Amino acid sequence: MKFINVPGKNKTHETKLYALSTCVHCKAVKQFLRDNDVEFEYIDVDLCDKNDQQEIVRDIVKRGGQLSFPKIIVDDVIMITGFDKKRIKESLEN
């Protein structure tokens, strides 16, 4: 599975994003993270092969999440579903 790394000055937290290439909210999260100079990595799930998609689904379900996107994972602990600016900011400030 190949994530795309987006460099940023804010490297305090490991931030991973599961997104869909056609999702407006997913694009908004990517832009929000870029605008806030957060280093993150993302993968567009709909562009992955079936094996990678199944692995992503297992990861999300294992964490207790629902299969909806965008899905932001901070420090491998916090999982945020959707474009929730407040929660994203709070998770990245601590």
Describe the 3D structure:
By secondary structure, this protein is an alpha+beta fold. The protein has a single domain (4-93), classed as Glutaredoxin (3-Layer(aba) Sandwich), CATH 3.40.30. It has 3 helices and 5 strands. The protein is globular and about 35 Å long. Strands 1-3-2-4-5 form a 5-stranded mixed sheet, covered by helices on one side.
What keyword list fits this structure?
single chain; 94 residues; alpha+beta; Glutaredoxin; five-stranded mixed sheet; 36% helix; globular
Structural class of the helix and strand makeup?
alpha+beta
* Number of spatially distinct domains: 1
Helix-residue proportion: 25-40%
* The named CATH superfamily: Glutaredoxin
Shape: globular
